[in-house]
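Data availability (excerpt). The following record was deposited with the supplementary files.
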Amino acid sequence: MRGHMTAVARREGESAAGLAAEPLQPQELVMTLLGSYMRPSHETVWSGGLVELLSEMGFSTGASRVALTRLVRRDLIARERSGRLIHYRLTERAERVLAEGDRRIFSLGREVTTAEHWTVLWHDIPEAQRLQRGRLARRLRFLGFGTLQDGLWISPHDREQEVVPLLEELGVAERAGIVLGDVTAVPGPTALVRRAWDLDALCARYRAFAAEFAPHAKRRGAPRVDDAEAFLVRTRIVHLYRGFPFLDPDLPDELMPDARARHKAVDVFHAAYERLAAPAQRHFDAVTSGWR
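Predicted structure:
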């Protein structure tokens, strides 16, 4: 028992430390900023303002501008000139990506799931198409898929409508197939899901997230922060929470080792996200107005 408790404590400490040292990637941060602050009220945003906001989060001007250029090359943002100023707008591709992300992020843990319809996907995409393999793997993980072995993925939900267009988009439909069914009747479903997902680490990460941001979710007694601080905290909250759909297949509570950890983190996210929205938006608007 003592060894088990020591292992749990170690995992909790590692998760908390992992969140604190979470590497922030400027390209992903830009998409977080645009999805959280631009889409609700702006069609374009001033490039200089984005660079300044990224500098507040520790990135150099050079790294920030490189990130913006790479997002243009990836067809996620597009440049527009207004006099001497450069503005960016989201492309249609980015709108689709962000809309898909919003569906996963804001529905995660909010509905009772039963996992009655599972999706099993296999593929034999060759090494010559490793770019497509990588993109497929990332999208599958975001949809809540776990991997049982190379080329074999499983999700506890019916993902046919998302996966079929994805395979066609990547041009690998002829090298893949999907099967829908109910695997909960298979002996040992718990062992199956533990093979596909690291649920203990996921729950530890949920607990660390809730512990760090619970003070900002309080209706009374929350830390007092100015607009700039609210922006930094809320952006970090959104950015870290965006990682959970890649780790959490949205399993029913009975298949989770600690379902309460997920519920707590979900509640903290939504409460803090809303409470800090107004001051964070004010700071974003002030910095990106282009008149500074």
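Summary of structural features: The first strand starts at residue 45 and ends at 46.
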